[in-house]
Each structure stands twice: as C-alpha cells, then as structure tokens.
Amino acid sequence: MTVYLPAVPGYPLVGAALEAAGLTVRDIVHVTEYVTLSSLTLDSERAQALGGDRVPVSRVPVEAVVGADAPYAVGVIAHPGGGELLESGDDVLRVAGGVVHLPSVHTTSGDFREQYRWCLERTGELLAVAGLGLDALVRTVDYTATATRAEYPRCGRPRRELLPGPVHPGAAGILVDVPVARGARVSLDAVAATGELTVLNPGWQRYDTLTYKPAVRAGDTIYLAGFGALDPVTQVALHDGDLAAQTAFVYASIETVLAEAGATGEHVTALVEYLTPAAAGSYDATRALREKHFPNAAVTAVVCSALLRAEFLLETVPTAVLS
C-alpha cells in the first residue's frame, strides 16, 4: 500500500520518518522538495539520503513551510519495494501499485501558453515510457507567478487540445513568485494511473466545460482537485478574509465529492494545503477542524505567494484511499 508522509524539514529526517512507518529509503517512489531559497541545490543531500537511488523529484518554490524552521522540507511518497524504475533522458519515473509517479517539468523557452503546452507534451513523453498517454493523468498541479494571473486562462487551449477527456484529471493552480528556474513561467507536477479511471462529480455543472474534474478514482485511490472556498454553482468566492470559514467550506466540499465513491474524510490519507501569507498566522487555529474531518491524513502545509482567486486564503489538495 502506498504511504504518504508529511513533509519533514530536511533530508536528514527522511529516514526516521520512513522507519516510523515501517519503511526504508528503498521504498521511496517520489519526493517533493519545498524550497524557500531559489539558489538552494539539494542534489548531494538527496543522493546521500536516498543511498544513490533515483526517484522522480518535484521542486516547489514556496514562501515558507508551516512548522518547519528550515530552508526546505521534503515530502515523501513510498510504496513497499519502491516499484519499477523507468528512465527518460535525465528524468526518471516510478510505477508502483498502479500509479505512475512523475517528476515536475518546466522549460525556459516561449511565452506562458507555449511553456504550458511544452509541460503537457513533456509529461506525455514521460508517460509514453510507461506505455501510457495523457489520458492516464489523474491530477495536475501547476505553479505560476502572480504576474501571470491575468493570462492564466490561456492555459485552457493547450489543456483542451492535449487533454480531450472525457476523463480529465483533478487540478490545482498555485501562484509562486520565485520561479523554479530563471525564465520558467510555469512548472507542472502530475501523477497518472495505469488502470480504469472514473470521474467523481456530485452534479456540479461548472466542470462540464472545464479541463479538470473535482476528483478521479483510480482503483482504490481518489485523487481530488485543489479546493478553495468557491461556490460550485455560482462560482462566487466565499468568506473573504475569514480563514476559519473558508477552511470549513473547503473541507465540507471535499467530503461531498468523496461521498460519490462512498468515502468519508476518514479515507483521506494526505492533504497538501497551500496558504497565502495573510493566512499563515491563523492556520494553527484550524487544526481541530482538520483533525475532525480528516483524522488519518498526513498534512503538509506550505505558504505560497498567492492563489488564483485573490479572495482565497487556502487551497487544499487531498488524496484518499478506499481500504
């Protein structure tokens, strides 16, 4: 069974976190590096911690990692045995438990739309190594700068052309003002699955015209989109300036989608929560609500630069397992 661990402040703590879960570094299938300094290179720390094993890596620039007084933190996904290692140029993939774990991708050439298209096409090239196409995607998370907010809708064309559906992945869009590399206007993180995919949607018609869905089920795992305090019918942002109210609305929305698969918040195994700087100081006050709704979730909370809707203080990306 795949295990999601909350981010820890630095590679030296990864081994102990895995040991507590009954796993070792040989079981790692993906790591996400949340970095607060654009100049920070972690190749040597990663190689030492992983004993030379190669795993797909996602690098996410953030303003801060909540609860971690360190320049970076590492989130780990592990599966007993570490799955199958596949290579595509300098990139690697891991396939474990029917899930294809991919590295994040980016380019520094072209305008916003061209870079977004390149990221999707490169993701397709990576999936081809596993004998799959972009129709196998179950979730995408893109990271762009606040300055691109006005032109963000331009990513719709490459998504419509390259992700024709009918099963679209869950998706989240996060704003980070320090690019993953100079000249990169977008960085894309994605995950795919090898089996049959099923869309979960509690009748929210807004998704009929979008290139992402509220959630996708692959086997026993549910990959949900990013959820903010947005009314799914009116598309009006709710509870402006009130983190507690936004959090309660987001969690209720997640549980509404999970119910489509007969699941509850207890099935959520991982939450990645993106907070705006204005929300970071109040985040701890939402702990009790989070533990009530998602008592079994490994939680990673990071501070991003902003979210696509200026009213949002929080966006939550959950993963659930039916077992």
Summarize the structure.
By secondary structure, this protein is an alpha+beta fold.
Number of domains: 1
Order of helices and strands: EHEHEEEEEEEHEHEEEEEHEHHEEE
Shape: globular
Q: How would you describe the oligomerization state of the chains in this entry?
A: single chain
CATH architecture assignment name: 2-Layer Sandwich
**Cα-based radius of gyration, to the nearest Å:** 18 Å
Structural class category: alpha+beta
According to CATH, the homologous superfamily is RutC-like
Average pLDDT metric: 96
Would you mind describing this structure in some detail?
This protein has one domain: RutC-like (60s Ribosomal Protein L30, Chain: A, 2-Layer Sandwich). The chain contains seven helices and 19 strands. The protein is globular, with a radius of gyration of 18 Å. A hairpin with a 2-residue loop joins strand 7 (91-96) and strand 8 (99-101). It has helices at residues 14-20, 43-50, 112-129, 156-162, 243-258, 277-280, 287-293; strands at 3-8, 28-35, 57-61, 64-65, 72-78, 84-88, 91-96, 99-101, 105-106, 137-144, 170-175, 186-193, 197-200, 215-218, 221-224, 268-275, 298-303, 306-307, 314-321. Strands 6, 7, 8, 9, 10, 11, 12 and 18 form an eight-stranded mixed sheet that branches. A seven-stranded mixed sheet has the order 4-17-16-19-15-14-13. The chain has a four-stranded mixed sheet with strand order 1-5-2-3, with helices on one face. The protein has 323 residues and is of the alpha+beta class. The termini are close together.
